[in-house]
Amino acid sequence: MKKATKMAALVLAMTMTVSALTACGSSADNAADAAGVEETAVEETGTDGSGEDAAADTDAAADTDAAADTDVASDTAETDAADSDADAEQSTGAMTKTEGVLTFGTNAEFPPFEFVAGTGVIDQYDGIDMAIAKQIAEDNGMTAAVENMEFDSLLVALQNGQIDAAIAGMTITEERKEEADFSIPYYTATQVMIVKEDSDIAAAADMADKKICVVQGYTGEICVNDMGYPYEAFKKGTEAVMELANGKCDVVVIDSATAQKYVDENEGLKIVEDADAFESEEYAVAVRKGNTELLDMINSAIEAKLADGTISELGVQYTEEITAE
Ligand code: ARG
Fold this sequence. Notes:
Blueprint (H helix, E strand, L loop, with lengths): L1 H22 L4 H6 L3 H9 L8 H11 L1 H7 L12 H7 L9 E6 L2 E2 L3 E3 L8 E2 L1 H12 L3 E6 L5 H6 L5 E2 L7 H4 L3 E2 L4 E10 L15 E4 L3 H9 L4 E3 L2 H9 L5 E5 H10 L3 E4 L7 E4 L2 E2 L4 H16 L2 H14 L2
Parallel strand pairs: 1-5, 1-6, 9-10, 9-11
Antiparallel strand pairs: 2-3, 3-4, 6-14, 7-14, 8-11, 8-12, 8-13
Helix pairs in contact: 3-13, 7-13
The chain binds arginine (ARG).
The site of arginine has 13 residues, from strand 2.
């Protein structure tokens, strides 16, 4: 009895450590994954043995109760689910909400992954993620559609069947894994600090007495919150960066590639990295819990695009496009 209680406490403590680390965009498994995306791909799609490791087990555990969760998750909706209600109901259990169409939710405020352009790869939506989404659909003989919404709404939209998958530079975190199933990762990123060129911020600890800006719901917010610093959260990256440019805040904490884009587009800003404070994060596609048919489809497509270099080419293409003057 006593032993069992002790064990349970230990397991709980371990789990808590893992999620505490994950909260700031890094975790035991992420750290290992960072070594090689493809390796991760194989690991995570493979049958997950009866491992003893809490981190590795999370997926398997999530999968077990997934079937039950999915069927219940219909009407917790908040937003404009009204018109998609009929579809949502039919979608329960089905692979996609509309036959032949893979509906991706995104928040097109996150260049180079997703942004609104004159002409995009899917309607007006362009970026690395949009190109990946289109290929996932086409590889499976489907068309890709995009629903643009707030980043914070994506997992709810998944749960209520408004979208089939979320692709939004979304970092895998333990918390989010409780709400959705994630594909194999397709991109590794990290949080960085954007500051004015003459800033004396050289490391994360230097933010202690500075005014910090983040974007609401992003892992950057979670990181700064975990560090215990006060901050102001904005709805969009561009708003936070404007605040910085206008001298109303001292530092913006946001994902690396997006930060680079903002620095390229706004004079007088630079990026400060701190690999000790901000560890690597992995972006993946999220699907409704238990929608393994769709998840497998997405995983095979991502695996193939990682293996043949398509995804890294897209990375280069969209980064260069943005950096080019
Ligand atoms: N990687 C960060 C996160 O998962 C930021 C993602 C923001 N993506 C977006 N499409 N707005 O929280």
